[in-house]
Structure formats: structure tokens, C-alpha cells
Design goal:
This protein is of the alpha+beta class. Helices cover 18% and strands 33% of the residues. The chain contains five helices and 20 strands. The strands form five sheets. Strands 14-15-16-17-18-19-20 form a seven-stranded mixed sheet. It has a six-stranded mixed sheet with strand order 1-5-6-9-12-13. The chain has a three-stranded antiparallel sheet with strand order 3-2-4, with no helix packed on it. The chain is globular, with a radius of gyration of 17 Å.
């Protein structure tokens, strides 16, 4: 397998969930984090893990630019695995033009938890969501709605509802070429979450997320996973090799 971190950059998120790119002149306060969707390439698929933010550069989606910088054309993406529907994970799905929704990946099959859509649509006053996008999801012909707590998408891809960060947040495993890639999204957003066994009040179920991280850490060591961190500014990918760790930037 080949893994590529599509590094949109490091951002500060304020209390209104507005994301500002960190530069040398940045003085704003807020939560600092990377935004980095991942591409995992197997013999059978070119898989995108979450969509990133929906920024545009001169009319071109930023997610398209990042793919092309890595010699991947947007139409090569065959599957998109969506962990949850906060704006920094879903906005890159598309944009509105003259009142019409334009998909960034119309040829890809997009996998979303149906119950996560229902949950998100109930969060009326939550600035983490973009409701104009949420209202489009179930109408898109290439969206595959998942309703199970766990299962297989293909022989290589499996999912499980981890239900920590949001009520129906899901995580993914990709197994191919005797390798296991694990994507914990915002239930395991940064490497430091494994050294600080904390239940965060900002999560829907912080204790469940904490307990899941403990379980995953042991499994990662036992099974030599490659772990992807969507929000880690220094360590996008962590590889386990027989109790030894290798950090990949």
C-alpha cells in the first residue's frame, strides 16, 4: 500500500469553529491543529479518508490541488471514507455554484453513516456543521449510507462505529499487502492522545473515546498497524514494527 498525507496546513480554530491558516504573523488564540486528509492506494482502490476543508484557490478546490501535487487526478479516487460530518472533515466534498451543489468527486463512492447524518442535522446551533452540505448528502447518487455498527465495505476495507467524538463517528481499517492501516479520525486525532489518557468534555462520549484509544494502542502494537493522525501537526503517520515505532512525516 501507499499512504499520502494531503497536508492542507496548520490551522487555528476559534470558538465559532472558524479555521484560520497559521502563518509567521499569526497571533490569534484558539485550538491549533493540522488538517490532513489521507490517500491510501491499494491494488484495487484509490481511497480518500475524509474531505478536509472546502477552501478554493482561483475556483479550484484545494483538495484537488493537493491531490494533483501528489500526481493523483481527482477522478482517480474510487472511494471516500467519511468518519463524521464536522466541517473540517466534510466541506471538501463540494461547493455551491449558482445555487447548485457541485461534487468534487462525483465518480467516487462515498461511505457515510446514515445515523451520523441524522445526528448532525439535529445540531442546529452547533457551528461545527455546514447544514447546506448536510442537506445534500442523502440526495447524492454516489453516497452509500451505512447503518450497521461494524462491517466490511470490501475485502480490504472495514469500519466500526466508535461513537466517541460524535454519536455515530466511525473509524476504518484498510488491510492489504500484509499491512494494516488504521484511521481513527477525531477519536484518535493526534499521537499525543495515546500518552494522555483523558476523556475530553468536547466529545459526545469522552470516556468511550478514551477507552477505545487504549484498546487501539494495544492492537496497533500487537498487529503492527500504520496509524493515521488527521490533526497531528508533526506526525501524520505512526508505524509499529515489533514494539518499535517509526514516525513518518
Amino acid at each position: 500500500m501507499k499512504i499520502i498525507a494531503l497536508q492542507e496546513g496548520n490551522y487555528i480554530a476559534d470558538s465559532k469553529k472558524e479555521f484560520k491558516l497559521i502563518t509567521e504573523k499569526t497571533t490569534d488564540s484558539g485550538l491549533k491543529m493540522a488538517i490532513q486528509p489521507f490517500v491510501v492506494i491499494t491494488e484495487n482502490d484509490v481511497i480518500l479518508l475524509d474531505f478536509g476543508l472546502g477552501f478554493m484557490n482561483d475556483g479550484i478546490p484545494f483538495i484537488h490541488e493537493m491531490l494533483q501535487e501528489n500526481n493523483i487526478q481527482p477522478e482517480q479516487i474510487t472511494k471516500v471514507l467519511v468518519s463524521h460530518l464536522h466541517k473540517d472533515h466534510i466541506e471538501g466534498i463540494g461547493y455551491f455554484e449558482n445555487g447548485n451543489f457541485v461534487q468534487n468527486f462525483p465518480k467516487a463512492k462515498i461511505y457515510i453513516q446514515k445515523r451520523e447524518i441524522d445526528f448532525a442535522l439535529e445540531q442546529i446551533d452547533n457551528p461545527s456543521y455546514v447544514f447546506e452540505i448536510l442537506n445534500e448528502l442523502e440526495q447524492l447518487p454516489n453516497v452509500e449510507l451505512l447503518n450497521e455498527d461494524r462491517g466490511n465495505i470490501t475485502d480490504e476495507i472495514s469500519f466500526e462505529v466508535s461513537a466517541g467524538h460524535t454519536q455515530f463517528h466511525q473509524v476504518f481499517w484498510i488491510k492489504a499487502d500484509d499491512e494494516i492501516v488504521f484511521y481513527g479520525a477525531d477519536d484518535l486525532p493526534q499521537k499525543v492522545y495515546w500518552s494522555m489518557h483523558v476523556a475530553y468534555k468536547t466529545d459526545f462520549d469522552g470516556k468511550r473515546a478514551r477507552d477505545s484509544r487504549k484498546k487501539w494502542e494495544q492492537q496497533a502494537k500487537d498487529e503492527n498497524w500504520k496509524v493515521l493522525f488527521y490533526h497531528d501537526m508533526k506526525t501524520p503517520i505512526l508505524e509499529f514494527f515489533e514494539e518499535k515505532l517509526e514516525y513518518v512525516s
